[in-house]
Design a protein that fits this description.
The protein has 545 residues and is mainly α. It has helices spanning 13-23, 29-35, 40-45, 84-100, 105-116, 128-141, 146-152, 157-162, 176-185, 203-213, 264-279, 282-296, 303-319, 325-332, 357-367, 379-398, 431-435, 437-443, 453-460, 463-466, 469-480, 487-498, 503-516, 519-537, and strands at residues 216-217, 236-237, 247-248, 257-258. The strands form two sheets. A two-stranded antiparallel ribbon has the order 1-2. A two-stranded antiparallel sheet has the order 3-4. The two termini are 23 Å apart.
Length: 545
C-alpha cells in the first residue's frame, strides 16, 4: 500500500539529497547539511517561502555602443527594440540565475507550471516583454492557486499571441486556445469514447469554450491594463468581438449553461464561471496531481499509486480550492516520496528520474560553486558570451532541451510522452551534449566560467578525507550520487587520481599542494581532480535523481 502518511524519521543524507534535488535547482553541500536531522515536514516547509528575486529584471548589453539595458521597464513601446529573439534568451538567463541562487520550491513549481501551461518563447509569443510578463506570472502563482492562474493565463499577452486567441472573435471563432486549454492545460482528454467525445469533454465543449474566450485581445503597449492581483500587464476584452450569447456545455459538464455577458466587467465574470465549471470536475484535480507526481516522484503511476496517492492528493487539492502548497507539501513529506511505505526502500523512488538538462546544469553549477559572469557587473559576458552563446545556444540545444521553447504546445516529451517520459532526455542525439558540459566548463575560455575542482576539494572536503583517494572518492560520490557506490566503483573512480600508482601518489601530491599552494603543485592535483570530477559527473549515477 502506498502511503501519504508523513515520514516518521528524520532525514539522513540519502533522503536529504533526494528532497533537495526534487524540490530545488540549488543543490549544495551546505544545504544538505542543514536538511540532515530535520523532519521531512520541517525541511519541506522551509522551502515554501515566497523568496524575492535576487536579480530584479534582465538586461540587454547590446548594442555595445548604446545598450538597450532594462528594456522591459522602459516607457518606450515594446516594438521599438530590435533583437527580440536575443532578448527572450536574456530573459531565460535572468530566470535561471534567480532559480540557481534560491533554495526554494518556487522555481521548481514555476517550471512545472511552464510544463502545464506551455508556451514556446520563440514560437509565437510575440515581443520579448510579453514573455517576461509570462514568466513572472508563473513565478507569482508557483506557490499559489492553480485555478487563479488558469483564469489569469487567458488574458496573458504572451498566451494570447501563442495560441491565437487574440484572433478569436464572435464572427470568426478560433478554437486553438480553447482546445489546448481543455486538452493540455486543465482537465485533459481522457479516453475517446465516441466521435468527438473524449470522456472529459466533447468537441461541443471546445466550441462553447471558444465562445467564452472570444474577444480577449493583446494589449500592445503593456500600459493599458495592469492586473490588480499580480501587478502585471494583461490583455483586455473587446466587448464588441465577444460572443454574448449563452453557452451550453455537454453532459461531461452536466449540461451547464454559462450566461453570456456584454460588458467588460461581466465578461470577466463569464470567464470565471467557465473556469469554475472546469475546476469543479474531479478529473481536473486528478490531472494536475498526476502531472505533479510524474514531475516530482516518477513517471510510472501504478494502480496502487492511482488509488492511494493520486486520488487522496486530488481531494486535498479540491478541499483547498486548488491551492498548490497543501498538495505538494503533503507529497514531499510522505513515506511514499521517500520509498518508505513498503518493505524495500531502495526499489522505487530515489534515483528513479533521469535529470533534465536544466537540472543537470544547475546541480553542477551549485554543487561545485562554478563561477560565471556576474549579471549585474559583467552583463555582456553573462548575457551574451556565457548564456546566449553557450548555455542557451549550445548546451541546451545539444542536450535536447530548447529552454522555455518546447517544439509543441504539448511541451517537453519527458513530461507527457508515454511510455518513455524522462527517458526521452537520453538519445543518441543528446547524450554527447550532456557529456560535454563539464568539459566545456573546464576548457572553454570564451564563456568566462571557472569550475575549480581544487577549490571544491580544499573548501568542501575535510582534510583527512581529501588526502586519501578512496575516502575522497567516497565522499564526493556521497554528495553527487543518489545512492552509495560499492567498492568496485570506488576503485574505478580512484584510478583517475592515482592512475597506475598506489594511493600514496595522490596523498603525496595533495599534501605537497596543501603545504606550498604553488601553481605547479596546483596544476598537478588539478589535472587529476578535473579527470575525476569529469568522470563522476558523466557517470550513469549522476544522470539520475
Amino acid at each position: 500500500m502506498a502511503s501519504l502518511n508523513p515520514l516518521n524519521t528524520n532525514l539522513d543524507l540519502r533522503k536529504a539529497k533526494h528532497l533537495l534535488r526534487r524540490s530545488s535547482f540549488n543543490y549544495t553541500k551546505e544545504q544538505l547539511e542543514l536538511f540532515v536531522g530535520m523532519t521531512a515536514t520541517d525541511a519541506v516547509n522551509s522551502l515554501t517561502s515566497n523568496v524575492p528575486y535576487v536579480l530584479a529584471e534582465p538586461y540587454d548589453p547590446l548594442p555595445i555602443e548604446a545598450p538597450d539595458g532594462f528594456w522591459n521597464s522602459s516607457t518606450e513601446h515594446p516594438n521599438t527594440f530590435n533583437g527580440q529573439t536575443r532578448k527572450r534568451s536574456h530573459i531565460t538567463a535572468w530566470w535561471w540565475h534567480n532559480a540557481l541562487n534560491q533554495v526554494s520550491l518556487k522555481y521548481k513549481l514555476s517550471f512545472f507550471l511552464h510544463t502545464s501551461f506551455t508556451v514556446g518563447k520563440d514560437s509565437g509569443v510575440g515581443l520579448s516583454p510579453f514573455f517576461f510578463d509570462h514568466l513572472r506570472l508563473l513565478d507569482f502563482y508557483a506557490l499559489g492557486n492553480l485555478k487563479e492562474l488558469a483564469k489569469k493565463i487567458t488574458v496573458d499577452n504572451c498566451m494570447l499571441d501563442y495560441l491565437n486567441n487574440t484572433q478569436n472573435n464572435k464572427n470568426n471563432p478560433n478554437e486553438n486556445y480553447a482546445r489546448e486549454y481543455l486538452e493540455l492545460f486543465t482537465i485533459l482528454k481522457g479516453e475517446q469514447i465516441g466521435e468527438g467525445n473524449y470522456t472529459n469533454y466533447t468537441e461541443v465543449d471546445i466550441q462553447q469554450a471558444a465562445k467564452v474566450f472570444s474577444g480577449f485581445k493583446k494589449q500592445w503597449d503593456r500600459n493599458g491594463n495592469i492586473d490588480s492581483d499580480t501587478g502585471l500587464p494583461t490583455g483586455f476584452i473587446n466587448v464588441n468581438q465577444h460572443d454574448s450569447n449563452n453557452k451550453t456545455f455537454s453532459s461531461a459538464f452536466n449540461n451547464q449553461v454559462i450566461t453570456g455577458r456584454d460588458t467588460a466587467e461581466t465578461i470577466f465574470e463569464e470567464l470565471d464561471d467557465f473556469v469554475e465549471m472546469v475546476f469543479a470536475q474531479e478529473e481536473t484535480a486528478k490531472a494536475y496531481c498526476r502531472k505533479l507526481y510524474r514531475y516530482f516522484v516518477k513517471s510510472d503511476i501504478s494502480s496502487t499509486v492511482e488509488t492511494d496517492i493520486i486520488t487522496p492528493l486530488s481531494q486535498i487539492m479540491i478541499n483547498n480550492d486548488y491551492d498548490i502548497l497543501p498538495v505538494i507539501t503533503t507529497l514531499l513529506s510522505s513515506e511514499h516520496f521517500y520509498d518508505e511505505d513498503d518493505s524495500d526502500p531502495t526499489d522505487n523512488i530515489i534515483g528513479a528520474i533521469i535529470k533534465s538538462p536544466l537540472q543537470l546544469l544547475s546541480e553542477v553549477f551549485s554543487m561545485f560553486n562554478v563561477r560565471y559572469p556576474d549579471p549585474e557587473t559583467e552583463q555582456l559576458y553573462f548575457y551574451r558570451n556565457f548564456f546566449q552563446w553557450y548555455i542557451h545556444g549550445t548546451y541546451f540545444k545539444a542536450a535536447g532541451m530548447e529552454f522555455f521553447n518546447p517544439d509543441s504546445v504539448a511541451g517537453y516529451p519527458a513530461y507527457y510522452q508515454e511510455p518513455g517520459f524522462d527517458k526521452n532526455w537520453f538519445s543518441s542525439n543528446t547524450i554527447i551534449g550532456r557529456y560535454t558540459l563539464v568539459k566545456s566548463l573546464l576548457t572553454l575560455n570564451y564563456i568566462h566560467t571557472e569550475l575549480d575542482t581544487v577549490s571544491f576539494v580544499e573548501n568542501k572536503i575535510e582534510a583527512d578525507i581529501a588526502k586519501d583517494p578512496g575516502s575522497l572518492v567516497s565522499e564526493i560520490s556521497n554528495l553527487l550520487f543518489p545512492e552509495n557506490i560499492d567498492s568496485d566503483r570506488v576503485n574505478y573512480f580512484k584510478t583517475f587520481l592515482i592512475e597506475d600508482s598506489d594511493d600514496y601518489y595522490w596523498t603525496g601530491a595533495w599534501l605537497q599542494y596543501i603545504n606550498t599552494h604553488s601553481e605547479n603543485d596546483k596544476t598537478t592535483v588539478k589535472t587529476r581532480l578535473d579527470s575525476l570530477i569529469s568522470a563522476m559527473i558523466n557517470a550513469a549515477e549522476f544522470q539520475l535523481m
